[in-house]
Design brief:
Layout (H helix, E strand, L loop, with lengths): L5 H13 L2 H8 L3 H15 L15 H26 L5 E7 L4 H13 L5 E7 L1 H9 L5 E6 L9 E5 L1 E5 L3 H4 L4 E6 L4 H12 L4 E7 L2 H9 L5 E4 L9 E3 L11 E7 L6 H16 L8 E2 L5
Parallel strand pairs: 1-2, 1-3, 6-7
Antiparallel strand pairs: 3-10, 4-10, 4-11, 5-8, 5-9
Helix pairs in contact: 1-2, 1-3, 1-4, 2-3, 5-10
Length: about 300
């Protein structure tokens, strides 16, 4: 009997959820040809096309729809089995991933208060960029993830909100001077870096990266010192030396992102659900009324 490797199924789900082979490759830290090769291998194992090549974008065939539904269920069972055998009671321990690029401080405070009220609950936390968290959530490495994305994320996406993006500069004069727009950023995996660069390139505006930081606090400080423009969540561009703009003549508006609290497929439990609800409510509320928590049914 043929066995279907779970890594192929995870790649398929990533392509479908992100609606892009390129984004799926970025999420898994591989090349686009590697993702295409995995999908081709999966199609060979299953004996048919999973994507409709005649349709625009990423569109599943009827067979593909069926496979995706089974894939979600198989991966959920696989991850539950590993979770139970490796750690015993899933209700007693939670693995949480927090986005270093957006909600880490608020989420840490909320989780600490939540855990203090439940002495028997053990919570293991890891902070990483949003893209890495969403990738690892699909792999089953986390039970709950707080992250941001510029594309729709379907996995466990019951608690989401709109997160406005803005530019922070010491003054408009920093970007009005002749020459390329100076840009301050955080490392390669940063969502804010990718979005700022893509926005300027789409608008045909020349730029040069004048500061690459190891933290978002450093990026904000560099912008406040006048080294260039910083792109980040509007609520987080808080510094006495920064002016915040939605756009300027040489800084086009950057699309908003969607913040979310995401649960691993197939997980249940009152502690986990309550924590997810609490995190979404607190983070959205701290947007000073700009944000509104959105509840929607997760697909799959």
């Amino acid at each position: 009997m043929t066995n279907v490797p779970t890594d192929l199924l995870r790649t398929l789900i990533a392509v479908v959820d992100l609606r892009s082979f390129t984004r799926a490759a970025q999420l898994h830290g591989v090349t686009q040809p590697a993702v295409s090769a995995q999908i081709k291998r999966l199609q060979t194992l299953l004996g048919g096309e999973l994507f409709d090549k005649s349709a625009p974008g990423v569109t599943l065939t009827a067979k593909g729809e069926t496979v995706v539904n089974y894939a979600r269920r198989l991966l959920a069972l696989n991850d539950q089995m590993l979770d139970v055998t490796a750690r015993g009671s899933a209700a007693a321990q939670l693995r949480v991933g927090l986005a270093t690029d957006y909600f880490e401080a608020t989420a840490l405070r909320t989780i600490a208060e939540f855990q203090a009220a439940r002495p028997g609950l053990v919570i293991h936390i890891c902070a990483e960029p949003s893209s890495a968290l969403l990738r690892d959530l699909r792999r089953g490495d986390y039970d709950l993830v707080v992250a941001a994305s510029d594309v729709e994320i379907e996995i466990g996406a019951e608690r989401t909100w709109q997160e406005p993006t803005a530019w922070g500069v010491a003054s408009a004069a920093v970007v009005e001077r002749k020459g390329p727009v100076p840009l301050v950023v955080v490392g390669e995996s940063s969502l804010s870096r990718r979005m700022s660069v893509e926005t300027l390139e789409r608008a045909g505006i020349d730029y040069e990266i004048t500061y690459v930081g190891a933290s978002f606090a450093g990026m904000v400080s560099a912008a406040a010192a006048g080294f260039g423009a910083a792109c980040w969540a509007k609520r987080l561009l808080q510094h006495p030396g920064l002016q915040v703009f939605d756009s300027l003549p040489r800084l086009p508006r950057v699309p908003d992102v969607r913040g979310g609290v995401h649960l691993r497929d197939g997980l249940e439990g009152s502690d986990l659900i309550e924590l997810a609800d609490t995190l979404a409510a607190v983070i959205a509320r701290e947007g000073d009324g700009v944000l509104e928590a959105v509840r929607r049914t997760a697909s799959g």
